[in-house]
Amino acid sequence: MSSNQHPMLNVAVKAARAAGAIINRAALDVEAVRVSQKQVNDFVTEVDHASESAIIQTLLEAYPGHGILAEESGREHGAKNSEFVWIIDPLDGTTNFIHGFPVYCVSIALAVKGKIEQAVVYDPTRNDLFTATRGRGAFLNDRRIRVSKRTRLNECLISTGFPFRTGDNFKQYLAIMADLMPRAAGLRRPGAAALDLAYVAAGSCDAFFETGLNIWDVAAGSLLVTEAGGLIGNFTGEPDFLEQRECLAGAPRVYGQLVPLLAKYSKFASVDDKLDASERVRAVSQEAARQSGNATEGDIYARSTVSLQQPDAQAADGEAAPAPAPRKPLRARANPGNTDGKFGR
């Protein structure tokens, strides 16, 4: 821990490393770990619970008056009405962990009056520690990090998460991939959103998007991204996204090019944009179904991109498209500064 870090961040780092030690010990014999299923394709292990307990114990020993919002135990621990709320994901990437696939992390964030002020994302397999304090920058192992300097979308590596729950709109994701894959250098699905956001902050990945995420998946990573000079919001570009279950993050000029591509797929899109998205989803699905029995994979990929349209001429050349005017949401949302909001109290 660094003497230059904020005291609350130092405690969060201590908690993350304690959890990481538990995870690393369990990873030595992952076949022996007991696994249960919360819902289809959504797993929890005894390691998740042990890691979460270690984090909560460390945080509350230092700050007994703080609140806790944790993935596995919810609000069972800590003060219920505190303006200080720790948001914890003890093992982001559980499915990866139980398969021995070394992409998972510990995520801890502190919200003060609903605003994220401290963040830690710890990758125990690589001993990589990502930290941020609002206004003080983002760091990887005490080295200052910044988002990527790339500006051309066709040079960018974009990470995402695929639908895996019952009821997820898989066909919509296929349409999004059909829109993005021909425009980008690559699309990746590592499987741990907090680590994806940390990699955006470090410039290892140029952008990230996903739907269906919970606040503990994105809270810490969101501060890492903004403190590293990036932008983060929902698919329409609005910054009040933490509890909206859709997230887009990236370097500013890349973010500006992705918002026009993804906005029509947002649940906050206008009626006209939603109709456009539905038509695109239907067209991609029909084309895939039509070609699946009588074309090579190369033909399917090539033909699925024929009807792509660039959002504007500048974006077609790889330059940043102007960010769209903020859209009004289709439903009322809690003010993040309001301590009566969902996670601020």
From TrEMBL:
This is Inositol-1-monophosphatase. The keyword tRNA-binding does not apply. Its cofactor is Mg(2+). One of its GO terms (molecular function) is hydrolase activity. Transmembrane segments: none annotated. SUPFAM superfamilies: Carbohydrate phosphatase. Residues 309-322 have a biased composition (Low complexity). Pfam families: Inositol_P. Keywords: Hydrolase, Magnesium, Metal-binding. The keyword Hydrolase applies. Belongs to the inositol monophosphatase superfamily. It comes from Variovorax dokdonensis. Its EC number is 3.1.3.25. InterPro entries: IMPase, Inositol_monoP_metal-BS, Inositol_monophosphatase-like, Inositol_monophosphatase_CS, Inositol_monophosphatase_SuhB. Residues 286-345 are annotated as: Disordered. It catalyses: a myo-inositol phosphate + H2O = myo-inositol + phosphate.
